[in-house]
Amino acid sequence: GHNFGDSLLREVGERLRRETADAGLCARLGGDEFAILIESAAGDGMLIERAHRLLSAMRDPFQIEGQVIYTSTSVGGARGQAGVNADELMRRVDLALYAAKARGRDAFAMYDETLDQQARERSSIRTELTEALQRRELELFYQPIIALDSGQTVAYEALLRWRHPTRGLLLPDQFLTIAEESDLIIPIGDWVVQQALADAAEWEGDFRLSINLSPSQTRHLHLLTTVEDALATSGIAAGRLEFEITEHVLIEDAAAGAAMLERLRKLGVQIALDDFGTGYSSLSYLRRYPFDRIKIDRTFVADIETSDEARAIVSTLTRLADALDMRTTAEGIERPGQLDLLRKLG
Ligand code: MG
Ligand code: MG
After folding, report:
1. CA atoms within 13 A on the CB side of 154
2. How far apart are CA 46 and CA 306, in angstroms?
3. How many angstroms from the chain centroid is the CA of residue 31?
4. How far is the CA of 296 from the centre of ligand 2 (A)?
5. Which comes out higher in pLDDT, residue 255 or 209?
């Protein structure tokens, strides 16, 4: 609740003030953002050292109302210099903070000019992405999914690509984060659902169709209307459609995520847990939510011939899925040796 959050923020403030007591001004900018201004003629080394001291100070657990709370921090740093006014310094430190967050939790990044370049790049991709839909630059590629017992292609996973006029063929990780940050993910996600079902309606055979959903898509009820409409227009039976979601759907807002999966399921579609084995991959998701399928992340398949650990994990996952009455799909099989091992591991 708010009171608890406020207590934590006060404790964080106290700790930051202690860390900067010898030299510096510490202030809260708003929300969970703090700024520290250090006046010193020392070089970058001092800044980096201070930043790491801050990270380590924040790693110690907090005691709030008798509870132990762990937090993580991201720190961005920039140096003031001639020609850099306060606004510009804040802008630089913001870019550095963004870069630190992109490295994951508990990280520090220092401003340099390449961050400006990357920020310009992001902003131009954002602008171009707005137009990409109208210009029909987005395309779907279909990855076959083969049943090991029959050798038949039983499903296709729709994969999104952006055929960019000057940057070439872009993969989702080159533009989907930007789409997520700007809500463009909604029209793009709608298009993927409509186009994939329209494509599948043209093909012969009784295959399943897999579509990836992003966490932010699942936060809008409007997704249900899109799916219902696309199913009706294409004439594809709901039972042939499967949505792949990652654990992020259940991490960020577990109750809302589970409610959305439940609603999708009521439409008759199936739900697969994608990229399993990376990230947190908490087993509690498997207990809390009855997935139809687990997709074993491609990193395990890539190493399966050389790594005992990868083999052990895959074999455990297939047995676990069996016991939970879920099916498994292994991602990214590219060599016959991988296929043989996967067959052996079930
Ligand atoms: Mg997928
Ligand atoms: Mg995947």
Report:
1. 9
2. 43
3. 23
4. 8
5. 209
Helices 44-59 and 2-19: angle between axes, nearest 10 degrees: 140
CA 50 to ligand 2 center in whole angstroms: 39
SS3 (DSSP) at 258: helix
Task: State which residues have CB under 5 angstroms from ligand 1, the bound ion.
Answer: 212, 244, 274
The per-residue pLDDT for range 278-319, each reduced to its tens digit, is 877 788 888 888 899 999 999 999 999 999 999 999 999 999
The alpha carbon of 145 and the centre of ligand 2 are apart by a number of angstroms equal to: 12
How far apart are the CA of 331 and the centre of ligand 2, in A?
A: 6
Ligand 2 center to 185 CA (angstroms): 18
* CA 245 to ligand 2 centroid distance, Å: 9
Query: Per-residue pLDDT tens for 102-122?
Result: 888 889 999 999 999 999 988
- Percent of all residues in the chain with a pLDDT value above 70, rounded to a whole number: 100
**SS3 sequence of 54-97:** HHHHHHCCEEECCEEECCCCEEEECCCCCCCCHHHHHHHHHHHH
Q: Is 168 left (phi over 0), alpha (psi -120 to 50) or beta?
A: left
Q: Which residues contact 273 (CB under 8 A, 6 or more apart)?
A: 244, 245, 246, 247, 285, 286, 291, 293, 294, 295
Cα–Cα distance between 272 and 243 in angstroms, integer? 6
Whether the predicted pLDDT of 253 surpasses 80: no
Ligand nearest to the CA of 296: 2
